Automatic annotation (TrEMBL):
Belongs to the cytochrome P450 family. This is Cytochrome P450. InterPro entries: Cyt_P450, Cyt_P450_B, Cyt_P450_CS, Cyt_P450_sf. The lineage of its organism: Bacteria, Bacillati, Actinomycetota, Actinomycetes, Kitasatosporales. It comes from Streptomyces daqingensis. Residues 1-24 are annotated as: Disordered. Residues 1-12 have a biased composition (Basic and acidic residues). PANTHER family: CYTOCHROME P450 YJIB-RELATED, P450, PUTATIVE (EUROFUNG)-RELATED. The keyword Transport does not apply. Keywords: Heme, Iron, Metal-binding, Monooxygenase, Oxidoreductase.
């Protein structure tokens, strides 16, 4: 008698216990069947080598026209993961379309351009640290995520795009709904509508008065040569750049502070010069990166990965947390945070053609932020135990909703 196959793992949209879920999936199979919200069948790839293979597999696409359940009409309006599939931009384009869109953006993320932003990032970091006491509660705590980890990357990416403060703050509130995989369908539909309206106003303002920023450059590419950038691609690119430009860096800074506060010996090593702040950033990306399970890739024909046959058109999640702590790639102590370890290549910024274009900027922002923060506040500690911090309500992002700290211990 043959044992019945194990049922697919049901993904938790609340974002709770992501590392435990990643470990269970990886131990079960590095490419395991899962159920997404709404009982949508998918596969999660959580092994380092298997994920690396997936990310550069020639038979795997990013465009949702390959998403069988979507084009068959089995995905309802307001599905909490729809934005990751249907937005038009670099992350959902393949082949020549991807190269065209990436090329338009890449000129703003050259090493020279990113390095030129360093003084601005350092100044903004200092200003935010100066202002932290203004937000300190009567009990001596301050939410470091809301008042430091969020405004730093959000202000930087909005400066690059030329998005004003009112639009910036509105987008941040809307993204909380769009990126939370436990949001109600009606909330998602409304947030999508409002987000489109915000970006329409941003584009209109830059058409009327072009500026020296990335949005004006993209608008010019659209208006001067419509074949290079459609209106939907323009809006989608702005959405993707704004989200990716602040959300992941915000979580990276948050997770690094948590890791250092719960591993004081590691913080002491950095402050003593035994490791660099860049090493802290890289180890955080490996150990507790900002992305849990990133949607989506789709096989264009049936493929086999880690012994699992993934049918054509199945949505596949990239399980970055599982890959980051895979002992086959990172050693028997992969579950240990160690800023002095000999770094192994992690996949937290992706791999292959879709490697994160903003990775140099995120790395620079996080290193500057952490060094300045702990130079001023070396006794900073969490105000509550780390395990009591509420997770971000998302199976995609990996972080905490708040980061209450005491600045002087």
């Amino acid at each position: 008698m043959t044992d019945a196959p194990e049922p697919p793992h049901r993904m938790d949209p609340s974002g709770a216990a992501q590392h435990a879920a990643s470990r269970r999936l990886r131990d079960r199979c590095p490419a395991a069947p899962v159920l997404l919200p709404g009982d949508v069948e998918a596969v999660a790839v959580t092994g380092h080598d298997e994920l690396k293979e997936l990310l550069s597999h020639p038979g795997v696409a990013k465009n949702a026209r390959h998403f069988t359940a979507l084009w068959e009409g089995r995905i309802p309006e307001g599905w909490p993961l729809s934005v990751y599939a249907t937005v038009e931009g670099m992350t959902t384009a393949d082949g020549p379309d991807h190269r065209r869109l990436r090329g338009l953006v890449a000129r703003s993320f050259t090493p020279r351009r990113v390095e030129g932003l360093r003084p601005q990032v350092e100044q903004l970091t200092a200003e935010l640290l100066d202002g932290l006491t203004e937000f300190t509660e009567p009990d001596g705590t301050v939410d470091l995520r809301e008042h430091f980890a969020y405004p730093l990357p959000m202000n930087v990416i909005c400066a690059l795009l030329g998005v004003d403060g009112d639009s910036r703050d509105r987008l941040h509130r809307l993204f909380r709904v769009l990126l939370s995989t436990d949001s109600a369908p009606a909330q998602i539909v409304e947030a999508n509508r409002e987000t489109a309206g915000v970006f329409a106003r941003v584009v209109a303002a830059h058409r009327a008065e072009p500026r020296d920023d990335l949005t004006s450059a993209l608008v010019a590419a659209r208006d001067e040569d419509g074949d290079r950038l459609s209106e939907r691609e323009l809006a989608g690119t702005l959405l993707l750049l704004t989200v990716a430009g602040h959300e992941t860096t915000m979580s990276l800074i948050t997770n690094a502070v948590r890791a250092l506060c719960t591993h004081r010996e590691q913080l002491d090593a950095v402050l003593a010069g035994a490791a660099t702040w860049q090493a802290v950033v890289e180890e955080t990306l490996r150990y507790d990166g900002p992305i849990g399970f990133f949607p989506f890739r789709y096989p264009t024909s049936d493929i086999s990965l880690a012994g699992t046959v993934i049918p054509q058109g199945t949505p596949v999640l990239a399980g970055y947390l599982g890959a980051g702590r895979d002992p086959r790639a990172h050693g028997a102590d992969a579950d240990r945070f160690d800023v002095t370890r000999t770094p192994a290549a992690h996949l937290s910024f992706g791999h292959g053609a879709h490697f994160c274009i903003g990775a140099p900027l995120a790395r620079m922002e996080a290193a500057i932020a952490l060094e300045a923060l702990f130079a001023r506040r070396p006794r900073l500690r969490l105000a509550v135990p780390d395990e009591e911090l509420p997770p971000r309500p998302s199976l995609v992002g990996n972080s905490r909703s708040v980061l209450p700290v005491r600045l002087d211990g």
